[in-house]
Amino acid sequence: MSKTIKIYVVFLVAMMALIVVVDANRPRPVNWMPSFDIKSKIPFGLKVFQDEKDKYFKGDTLTEIRVTPYEFFDTHYDYDTLINTYAVKGTFLSIDNYYNIDESSTDEILYFVSHGNNAFLSMNAFSQKLQDSLHFDSNNHYFNDRITTTLANNKIDDKEYQMKMGVSGYHFSSFDTLKTTVLGYHHTEDSTYVNFIKVPYGNGHFYLHTQPFAFTNYYLLKDRNYQYAENVLSYIPKGTVFWYPNKTYNSTASESPLRFILSHDGLKWAWYLFLIGMIIFMIFNAKRKQRIIPIVKPLENTTVDFTKTIGNLYFQEGNHDTIMEKKIIYFLEKLRQDYLIDTQNLDDDFIKKVHQKTGKDISLIEKVVLLIKRQRKTFKSTEADLIELNNTLEKILENKIN
């Protein structure tokens, strides 16, 4: 290693060390982003709620849902015609900034509640599906400084709680007053809005609350605001509580090994500086040391030709099952070779990729997948089945795009 290169290396190491030291000693800004993650310690995370949840539901059984509500409740439904109900009973609980539950799970929650169970949802806004099913509307209003939250029943709690950071003006603007019970309000400088209601649905009830920030770390640790959260949760009927912290188990956080480095500015720029330095180093050294790379002819892939030949032999012998399997192998090999498509799983993602790369009609591709799956399941085919499969495969593999 030359003296110049040594100087470059020492300079890069010194710069990286300086950036790390400066970054480590500067004050960290408070992250006010609404996380609603049970592992998050930032102000608007749910770490405190997660740690203290056993106290809020003392005497209840807590079950944490780590899959979608649809997957969880559907596995606990007894489809026996004499039963037709859920093997579990209790209250579904979800706290989030906005309604992030998929539509299939929403249908399952509605069905679960209609069978004599309950659901407690604390969110700024709800899905249109839920609003239409429960016959309510929500809206947002803007306020100057802060809002005051109260419960409708003074016997449960007659105090007022001041909320400022993070909270919004979402409220229930309309609902069925004959069936809906108002449980709480929030107040601005000159108006009062409903922010907590109980709505009957089938044989059960929905408890809907529009101030989820009341359950975050910041408010549970600030003054006596934890009392408001406790009193709101006290409306949940005793029994089993199915707690769904969907921000944690459905997280799209990066799984990259570099996520820690890239999450800190100092380490991130030190990493970038190191990469830039290495690229410059390789460019200047490659000019003098790079040899001519000989062209090596790749090995010829004879798999496709061999498969076609064997397939024709089986056709002459009248072995339809075998020839159909060979045709399928040939078809899948062509997709892998010509379009670089993974053919291990013939699912919706496979159909979408074939459609995008070949330009063929998606119904035609779906038909091919159906024929392949049917053949590999039954292995009982006729000459007509063989002809149908072959014609369909050829339509997809022909060069002309329909």
Short summary:
This protein has helices at 3-25, 47-56, 69-75, 103-114, 128-134, 217-221, 225-233, 246-249, 259-262, 265-289, 303-317, 320-339, 348-358, 362-378, 383-397, and strands at 61-64, 77-78, 85-86, 91-95, 118-122, 136-140, 147-151, 161-163, 170-175, 181-187, 192-201, 204-209, 240-243.
Describe the fold and architecture.
The protein has helices at residues 3-25, 47-56, 69-75, 103-114, 128-134, 217-221, 225-233, 246-249, 259-262, 265-289, 303-317, 320-339, 348-358, 362-378, 383-397, and strands spanning 61-64, 77-78, 85-86, 91-95, 118-122, 136-140, 147-151, 161-163, 170-175, 181-187, 192-201, 204-209, 240-243. It is an alpha/beta fold. The protein has three domains: 3-28 and 256-284; 47-249, Rossmann fold, CATH 3.40.50; 303-397, no CATH class. The strands form three sheets. Strands 1-13-4-5-12-11-10-7-8 form a nine-stranded mixed sheet, sandwiched between helices. It has a two-stranded antiparallel sheet with strand order 2-3. It has a two-stranded antiparallel sheet with strand order 6-9. The two termini are 61 Å apart. The mean pLDDT is 85.
Task: Explain the layout of strands and helices.
Elements: H1 3-25, H2 47-56, E1 61-64, H3 69-75, E2 77-78, E3 85-86, E4 91-95, H4 103-114, E5 118-122, H5 128-134, E6 136-140, E7 147-151, E8 161-163, E9 170-175, E10 181-187, E11 192-201, E12 204-209, H6 217-221, H7 225-233, E13 240-243, H8 246-249, H9 259-262, H10 265-289, H11 303-317, H12 320-339, H13 348-358, H14 362-378, H15 383-397
Parallel strand pairs: 1-13, 4-5, 4-13, 5-12
Antiparallel strand pairs: 2-3, 6-9, 7-8, 7-10, 10-11, 11-12
Helix pairs in contact: 1-10, 3-4, 11-12, 12-15, 13-14, 14-15
